[in-house]
TrEMBL record, chain A:
Subunits I and II form the functional core of the enzyme complex. Electrons originating in cytochrome c are transferred via heme a and Cu(A) to the binuclear center formed by heme a3 and Cu(B). Residues 18-114 form the Cytochrome oxidase subunit II transmembrane region profile domain. It comes from the Bacteria. This is Cytochrome c oxidase subunit 2. One of its GO terms (cellular component) is plasma membrane. Its cofactor is Cu cation. It comes from Vreelandella arcis. It catalyses: 4 Fe(II)-[cytochrome c] + O2 + 8 H(+)(in) = 4 Fe(III)-[cytochrome c] + 2 H2O + 4 H(+)(out). Binds a copper A center. Belongs to the cytochrome c oxidase subunit 2 family.
From TrEMBL, chain B:
Residues 2-286 form the Heme-copper oxidase subunit III family profile domain. Belongs to the cytochrome c oxidase subunit 3 family. Keywords: Membrane, Translocase, Transmembrane, Transmembrane helix. Its main location: membrane. Its EC number is 7.1.1.9. The chain crosses the membrane at residues 12-31, 38-57, 77-102, 181-199, 219-246, 267-285. GO terms for cellular component: plasma membrane. GO terms for molecular function: cytochrome-c oxidase activity. It is an enzyme of class 7 (translocase). It comes from the Bacteria. This is cytochrome-c oxidase.
Automatic annotation (TrEMBL), chain C:
GO terms for cellular component: plasma membrane; respiratory chain complex IV. InterPro entries: Cyt_c_oxase-like_su1_dom, Cyt_c_oxase-like_su1_sf, Cyt_C_Oxase_1, Cyt_c_Oxase_su1_BS, Cyt_c_oxase_su1_dom, Cyt_c_oxidase_su1_bac. GO terms for molecular function: cytochrome-c oxidase activity; heme binding; metal ion binding. Cytochrome c oxidase is the component of the respiratory chain that catalyzes the reduction of oxygen to water. Subunits 1-3 form the functional core of the enzyme complex. CO I is the catalytic subunit of the enzyme. Electrons originating in cytochrome c are transferred via the copper A center of subunit 2 and heme A of subunit 1 to the bimetallic center formed by heme A3 and copper B. It comes from Vreelandella arcis. PANTHER family: CYTOCHROME C OXIDASE SUBUNIT 1. CDD domains: Cyt_c_Oxidase_I. Pathway: Energy metabolism; oxidative phosphorylation. Its EC number is 7.1.1.9. This is Cytochrome c oxidase subunit 1. It comes from the Bacteria. The lineage of its organism: Bacteria, Pseudomonadati, Pseudomonadota, Gammaproteobacteria, Oceanospirillales. It is a multi-pass membrane protein.
Amino acid sequence: MRLWQRPLVFGAGLLSSAACFAQSWNMPIGVTNVSREIHGLHMTIFWICVVIGVLVFGAMFYSLFRYRQSRGAKAAHFHENTKIEILWTVIPVLILVGMAIPATATLKNMYDASDAELDVMITGQQWRWRYEYLGENVAFNSNLSTPRSQIGGEEDRGEHYLLEVDEPLVLPINRKIRFLMTSDDVIHSWWVPDLAVKQDTIPGFINENWVKINEPGIYRGQCAELCGLDHGFMPVVVQAMEENAFDDWLAERKKVAEQEAQGVGREWEMDELMARGESVYQSICASCHQPEGQGSPPAFPSLAGNQQLINDLDWHLDKVINGVSGAAMPAFRNTLNPVEIAAVVTYTQNAWGNETEEIVQPARVADQVEP
Amino acid sequence: MSSTGYYVPPTSRWPILGSLAIGLMMAGLGAQLVYGSATLLIVIGALSIIAVMTFWFRDVISESHLGLYDSQMDRSFRWGMGWFIFSEVMFFAAFFGALFYVRMFAIPWLGGEGAKGVSALLWPNFIAEWPLLNPPDTSVPSPEQVFSPWQLPLVNTLLLVTSSITLTISHEALKTGNRSLCRNWLAGTVLLGCCFIFIQGVEYYEAYQHYGITLEAGIFGSTFFILTGFHGVHVIIGTLILIVMLARVMRGHFEDSQHFAFEASCWYWHFVDVVWLGLFIFVYVV
Amino acid sequence: MAPKIPQQSPLQHSDTVATAGGIPQHAAHPTGWRRWVLTTNHKEIGTLYLIFSLTMFFVGGIFALVVRAELFQPGLQLVEPEFFNQMTTMHGLIMVFAAVMPAFTGLANWMIPLQIGAPDMALPRLNNFSFWLLPVSFTLLLSTLLMPGGGPNFGWTFYAPLSTTYAPSSTTFFILALHIAGISSILGAINIIATILNMRAPGMRLMDMPLFVWTWLITAFLLIAVMPVLAGVITMMLMDINFGTSFFDAGGGGDPVLFQHLFWFFGHPEVYIMILPAFGIVSAIIPTFARKPLFGYASMVYATAAIALLSFLVWAHHMFVVGLPLVAELFFMYSTMLIAVPTGVKIFNWVTTLFRGSISFESPMLFALAFVVLFTIGGFSGLMLAISPADFQYHDTYFVVAHFHYVLVPGAIFAIMAGVYYWLPKWTGHYPNETLAKWHFWFSVIGVNLTFFPMHFAGLAGMPRRIPDYALQFADFNFVSSIGAFFFGASQLLFVLVIVLCVRGGKKAPAKAWEGAVDLEWTVPSPAPLHTFETPPVFQSTDK
Ligand code: HEA
Ligand code: HEA
Ligand code: CUA
Ligand SMILES: [Cu+2]
């Protein structure tokens, strides 16, 4: 759309919405019972406010019009009336009680995460989400997949600009799913408007929430708590599937995970590790250390040409496995598997002119991670 | 009273100089903490603050001696001091609030109790207890043991309570014009204050040397030091104020009926005393 | 509650108070810059505060324009996300602590002594100290933008651990700057309370005081109660950053959410600190231009007190989604909703004051009326946010941004502007240029709504706050908001123009500059001489 056309479209939107309150102007109704209840609450309070507003502003504009000095109005002198003052204290209280009752019921419902059929651990990390299907041995990270070239404007922006990820969270419909939410670094907030779930992830604590989705589909949201540099680039995508499809998907993922676990035991080739390492690096590390490893000092050290890194492999491994406490560098012992860690370290050791020829085997990493 | 009404002081250079001095000290403090190289700036800032305060109070004292202050001015000072102490109460309330919150909510949650007990999944070996000797993250240093309230802390409590009594006696003496009595009891109060500070110093030494209670030692160390530390700073300031009062009493300042500086110092001292009682109960005893 | 004009002239134009031995008195009142820097006069200090505040409004406004310019279209165009975050943070901090709060303190300095018949503030030297701490503080704060690693980038609410473990190194300076600003506020508030409680003209009871004085009395109480808590929490941050404590670190047994509790225990009363004095100003202006006594004076006072007391019990409504236990969630929802009641009382009182008045529409009145309407809209969205389940959808979206700009910009800022237009004749002796003032008003009203109304829609449609780039469906709303922001910003140049013109000349104003005005300040000449009420006026209340 051309810039100059926008106001026109906006104006048209304003007019049409006056009648029907079009979808994209208002809170979505969503696809869970809770989201519907919340939407209902929202509309009820909204209309109550509109009515009060019309009455109050009506009285005000009537007075302004009717008692203008230019119209010759003479001022009266009353300045108190206990009866009416009591009235306009009590009536709002009653209105508020009327709002509080349904709100309380909805809230109680939202807090009841019992009897869930599936537990999903959601971990916020600068700046991606990690999903873990508890007890299923399936876990993965979910990163923004919009190319940087679209953000910079060198390329046309896609339909789901900034709201698309490499791997969405896959959930079954019609099952109650409990979310356990936490964070590895700062506070994030996991939010999908259509599910009416927004919950902060607090490092060191776990918050509970739950969802039961009514319709299959793809639901998009974003991190809703300022979490640093790329807070704006931390989308959430949920793919809700029919139950059978979900079960198949989960079984498939389990198989892949098992294969990966077996990979720890075998010798890996340099090429394999480099290829795997590059993809891990680009999806996990590049947001801080930059795609070419140049970092952005002083906040994020460069890895390319980093002398200590080149000379001291153990130190390097330790940084990646255990992180740097008190700094933004996360510990990856729990969030990447040994193969991934071995691959990314090998990659870092050999990319961008580092050329140390060092190869780290997954088994070595596994030894360091286990005890 | 020599004038027509409420005394409005003439222009003064102390406010602006005081602001700049504070700015200097804060900039120094920041530079010291961040870049580690600004002790000189801090010293200059602190000295300037002290100098400005000295000159400022000197002006106030001489105005008072000149009889420029009437009873309304006296009330202004009273309201001013009273609300200042209220602000101090709220300052400590923040730290007490933190202590209560941690003890009543955060630690039980981390240990698996209460509304957010699921958090214990992240800290499988953590046991909720207070005093917290084993922080959830085992790499955080931990205190080995904590102080028994019935040794040095109890002594300190007795010292401070006594000092409040001696100060009251001193004040009564001032009101009845008995200067030497006032002076002696005030000197006694200052001494008690110094003893308190000394014992607190010993306790800190013990904490670091033998108990493993340090600033880094988890939330126990954090709350312990922020509460006792800020209280200690207040005792030091209070003692300095009392020393100034002592000097002024010895110089024959103050009148039997009008001596608000002395009275304000007493308020301050009693306030510091009350804070200690709260500390004694909630930091040491329970 | 019109006070009788005092019998004897309350004014002494002499430039001296007591010239008792030794200490040089007003006799040698310095001139030039020293007059301003060293002053102890409440009017001069008031002027200093107002000038400082206006300057900072522009600085904060320019930061907002950087934000709005980046958000003009999707994509990253002008600034890096890192700098964007610094702009958002600094905008919030500067507007709250350096624009709105000092503006109200400036008005308090100027008007409270005049309204209660006092010769000056209770502690004049302290008064000047409170002021000069501000430029020092904000120089330090703004200088962090130039430090390595950049300035504060964690929002004006600086949640730990983003503001501790993950913060730029300049954060220590940010904390110290905030400490200085806090000292300034506390000392200023102490002075105001002492003045109001101790310096009223003989015969003026508490319930005779103009509402601006009442609202400030209560505001000052709030300030003294909560600024120290802010000082406490930033001290804990300082310790976590520099001394390895673990207040906000679960690993050591602390809790990041503890930070939020402490911050909002300060932060929520803080937002009422920014609105109560505005209520006071509007309560002076509406009766003046309706030529009718304020309806429900007593209930206004009680309502203000009720809002202030309730404000201590609602802080966690900013934390509905951090995972509070259910009981806490319910308690904070109910207590927050209750605030609508006393606030409603105020709105109804104002409207009833207009009813059967004799209303004229000078610029102060226009701003006051716009305040009533637009603040109420902001209040309604506040009430919607208070419904905890619904807040799960609103929280941290532009709906919240819309809410608080409606209560702050056409709320606090409009009330300040109304106050400035109302009292300019008293300060300068000239009426502001009414034509320009009306242009300023209409541009501002249009600009404000253009900027902030679409934010409601953007928020409901799902746009989070504090993001430098956004999905395509939010483009239209942001486009309009940005145009509105530049339009509103540019209109504020008119405000400066009106003030400058008014200082330099204009239609002469009599002592009682507005026909319907009643309070004591209108009994002294315009411009108010440097020293007023050196002999207290005798105040006779007309019984209500
Ligand atoms: C001047 C400042 C000011 C004022 C006056 C208010 C007033 C109110 N605010 Fe607002 N608020 C802010 C400044 C302010 N707020 C700021 C800055 C933030 C964001 C901070 C941040 O995160 O950065 C915020 C955020 C905020 C939140 C958190 C939202 C979130 O982050 O998720 C909530 C939630 O409850 C809230 C509620 C309210 C309520 C209920 C009022 C009430 O006081 C409003 C009462 C008024 C009315 C209701 C209208 C008039 C009444 C009637 C006509 C009577 C009849 C009406 C009824 C019975 C409905 N505010
Ligand atoms: C009293 C407080 C106050 C005031 C007056 C304002 C005024 C304005 N605010 Fe804001 N704002 C806050 C308090 C305030 N704000 C707070 C607390 C936050 C939250 C911060 C956070 O998330 O941490 C916030 C956040 C905030 C955001 C969200 C940022 C984000 O989430 O990333 C936005 C976005 O549009 C915004 C915009 C504006 C605009 C356009 C104005 C305008 O009204 C400004 C108008 C003024 C000027 C523009 C300057 C004067 C004019 C000139 C300099 C002349 C030159 C100009 C031209 C020629 C055009 N503000
Ligand atoms: Cu993660 Cu914002
Ligand atoms: Cu609030």
